[in-house]
Amino acid sequence: MALIIGAIACSHTPTIGFAFDKKKQEDPVWKPIFESFAPVRGWLQEKKPDVLFVIYNDHVSAFFFDHYSAFALGVGDRHPVADEGGGVRDLPALAGHPQLAQHIGRSLVADEFDMSFFQDKALDHGVYSPMSMLCPHEPAWPVPVIPLQVGVLQSPVPSARRCYRLGQALRRAIESYPEDLKVAIVATGGLSHQVHGERAGFNNTAWDAQFLQLIENDPVRITEMTQAELATLGGFEGAEVIMWLVMRGALSSNIRKTHESYYLPSMTGIATAIYENLASEPIAGEVERHRRHMDEQVAGVEQLAGTYPFTLETSVRAYRLNKFLHDMVLPAHRERFLADAEALFVEAGLSQAERDMVRNRDWRALIQYGVIFFMLEKLGAVVGVSNLHIYAAMRGQTLEEFQKTRNAPGALYSVAGKDAAPQAWDAKAPAAR
């Protein structure tokens, strides 16, 4: 069973990353930042967690307002560094922990949190600024990371209470994971600051001190605060401290603070803290009961012959091939595929098995491998195969055999648009494999 050993709380300002990259360890202005992170770095080296669960917010680097989620969980196996406008920092990509992330995702949805999930998105200073202080990283980071992006930039944002309850659900998720792992929660953001408007530069050191006391000893009181109240006391962007409540909710009510620091060099109150978890062992059937709860909605689906649910595990495993087929929505990708598919296979890094399935239009094998159907119909539109041909092939039937099961046997269609290849619908569907 996985165990939450404790939590780290820290600010995630670009200031931190700047000081690190410019080697400001002995500069009097920047030295207090390095000193504040030193005990945290030492704690991680001593405790050696197997996974860090990092709560952060993106700063419109990888996420944009064409699709903006309240809670987005990173479930992939790699998290590169974002370019925030001035080039990518000289840091290696962080490894993910897809298995634990998928388990957490299933658990949170079972607990009725409407999560979104991401892969192949870069992480910005919300993660990499503190991480560069927390761990050595040459040639690679010593521990994988599961990132949780909280949408705090576009109102309405999740309430403080909702964040705390998400933390409580996160505890259930981690403690029900069957593998023995040591997990540390890392909460980033804050403290008081405002970076926009005529109020830019606002700070409130008294509130920062009070917040640090409350998050340790009386977090429920913070959950009762509105975003406007948090912004009044800590600046509008300082209201992102609700992310600390996810961390605090994941811990026991009993914790031991072993370190705390605070420094205000310029725009943001920079804090670090360590909270060791003093949680009791799960009681009676608590873990097994939660695992059953996680699986309740899909219990029995495995009995549906010829049915392949598209799960988080499937999504991660077949991500590369699904992305390749999804790119058929791009005219240039379609044109290159029709002109020289082999070169495009190589560029996309597809395995030989993946290439064979696409070459052979092996619709059934593609589904069984983990390609979602809506990628098949995109490929079909590009190569001139109707949806009905694909349905028939997945069932191991000819088109004529399949059409006899339909109310309108003459109906053929696809999602092809006006610039698609000729729709050769008089051809037989490829034999199923």
Query: Radius of gyration over alpha carbons?
Result: 25 Å
Low-confidence segments: none
**Could you spell the SSE succession in H and E letters?**
EHHEEEEHEHEHEHHHHEEHHHHHHHHH
- Give the spatial strand order of the biggest sheet: 6-3-7-2-8-1-10-9
Let me know the average pLDDT: 94
> Biggest β-sheet, characterized?
8 strands, mixed
Global geometry: elongated
SS strand fraction:
5-15%
What is the number of E strands?
A: 10
Number of helices: 18
Calculate the terminal CA-CA distance, rounded to whole Å. 40 Å
Helix proportion of residues, in percent?
40-55%
Description:
By secondary structure, the protein is of the alpha/beta class. Helix content is 42%, strand content 13%. The protein contains 18 helices and ten strands. It has helices at 14-21, 31-47, 98-110, 125-134, 160-175, 205-217, 219-223, 227-234, 242-250, 286-295, 312-317, 319-326, 331-348, 352-359, 363-369, 373-383, 387-394, 399-403; strands at residues 3-10, 51-56, 71-74, 78-79, 94-95, 116-118, 145-150, 182-188, 255-263, 270-277. It has an eight-stranded mixed sheet, with helices on both faces. Strands 4-5 form a two-stranded antiparallel sheet. The longest helix is centred in the last third of the chain and has 18 residues, at 331-348. The two termini are 40 Å apart. The model has no long low-confidence stretch (mean pLDDT 94).
